[in-house]
Amino acid sequence: MLENMGEGCSDGISCPGVFLPDKESVYLGVYLLNQYLETDCFRSMFPIEIQQSMRFEKKFENAIDPGAVAEILERKF
């Protein structure tokens, strides 16, 4: 069994041409490895700066080496 872990953070998000309503908080939701995580709410102003990281973990019960995990992920994504 192998365990895969991914962690990420962003310096900022920019979307030219996109308008976010003033005074409403927004959040970022990410679905990865059959897990859904959301950030805390933040200001709706570009560039969006997210001050937290997300951590995704998945155990691959039948994998015996990292190459097997890579093959599983390539087939799914």
Description:
The chain has 77 residues and is α+β, with helices and mostly antiparallel strands. It has one domain (2-76). The chain is 14% helix and 29% strand. The longest helix has 11 residues, at 66-76. It is elongated and about 50 Å long.
Question: Helices, strands, pairings?
Answer:
Layout: E1 2-8, E2 29-32, E3 35-38, E4 54-60, H1 66-76
Antiparallel strand pairs: 1-4, 2-3
Mean pLDDT: 78
What is the total number of structural domains?
1
State the strand order across the main sheet. Answer: 1-4
Overall helicity: 10-25%
Structural class: alpha+beta
SSE pattern: EEEEH
Number of strands: 4
Write a compact overview of the structure shown.
The chain has 77 residues and is α+β, with helices and mostly antiparallel strands.
Descriptive tags:
SPATA6_fam; alpha+beta; 4 strands; two-stranded antiparallel ribbon
